[in-house]
Amino acid sequence: MTELSFDRSNITHIVWDWNGTLLDDNHANLAAVNAVCSTFGREPVEMDHWRTVFRRPLVSCYEELLGRPFADGEWERVEQLYEEGYRHHLPTCELADGVPDVLHTWAGGGGTQSLLSMAGHDHLVPLVTERGLAHHFTRMDGRRFTTEHDSKAEHLFHHLDNQGIDPAQVVLIGDIDDDARAAQEAGAQPILVSSGLMSRDRLVATGAPVVDTPVAAVAALRGA
Questions:
Q1: Which of 31, 186, 189, 203 shows the smallest number of beta carbons within 10 Å?
Q2: Reduced to 3 states, what is the DSSP secondary structure of residue 138?
């Protein structure tokens, strides 16, 4: 793990990412991506390759993956194919190792926590609730609006403002470089887990602390 570059004693609130962080859904993501590849005439990709390609904005990411720009209406088709493929595999996805115990651990130490995902809000909330996790969070927000840069940053501003939380007391724990970017733009701090959709090298390149799991992230915050 890279050393924490902030005073952990100031941190009272965690904003958790969902996909690839608390939910181990890499295989569902890859299956959905390969459904897109199949329809658009591209050979299937392996997870190691996808973790070197995946990024936001998603449109340019998929254009790189498929090797060409989209014509009118094709991006909407990609979204539909991905959603159908992901939902088909979603029932096979388990919570990440150490979840929900790690949520109890943080709360037991007096900290608060919330959930912010770029998954659609109407998809996210029932899913988290069905898995018995909703009571852990002071607020749950999925993607409620679109932004020019397809980043979590603006969503994080709203998420914290709606709770009246000082960003200086917040760590965002996520699995991609956009999580680090969002935290830094909002005035919060990031910790990234290497178990999600980006390779460890890409995460380290952000300058944010990188750990293996959500459990390791909370352990670092507690000084373990």
A1: 31
A2: coil
